[in-house]
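User
Please review the sequence:
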Amino acid sequence: MIFGRSERGKPPVEPVTLKILVAGGFGVGKTTLVGAVSEIRPLRTEEYLTEAGRPVDDTSGVEGKHTTTVAMDFGRITLREDLVLYLFGTPGQERFWFMWDELSEGALGAVVLADTRRLEDCFAAVDYFERRSIPFVVGVNCFEGAARYPAEDIRQALDLDADIPVVLCDARDRQSVKDVLVGVVQHAMDYGTAHRPAVTT
């Protein structure tokens, strides 16, 4: 089926649209992830880093980064003919965190992108989604040259509950990112089932 059209003799399918956030620290690969998987040209709100921002922008570990997201990244991917995900990448720097509340409105779930070289940078995102009961998956972006750790070690380092998925991924690779997003949808469904209020008669 071509998106927006139906096969001959079959009624058109109206896809379900879901909102997924992509969060994490500065320079962890959120913009790259959205761009790798989006079937439309991603909307980006990047600005160049300046000398004026140097005192508040910690670029240690990402010295080669020259731009930063100041509002959001936006992309779209069709997982099935009846399921479309809208991706919203959040700004990673602390001075833009006030935008997270607006971006998270109506979100089904989230990807918290992590870099093992700067794992502490994703603590704020993990805490944010835990406090607001938004289901999330931790995606460990496997940068070249970075040490690889088992998912269980990363879970312990982040003090995550046993039911929160931790997956290794490559934010540049479409199939790898797609697998992470499928994991978010599945986890959100499981989370919703587990936290559904009991029906009393």
In short: Strands lie at 16-24, 43-48, 67-80, 83-89, 109-114, 136-141, 166-169. The mean pLDDT is 84. The CA atoms of residues 57 and 93 lie 7 Å apart.
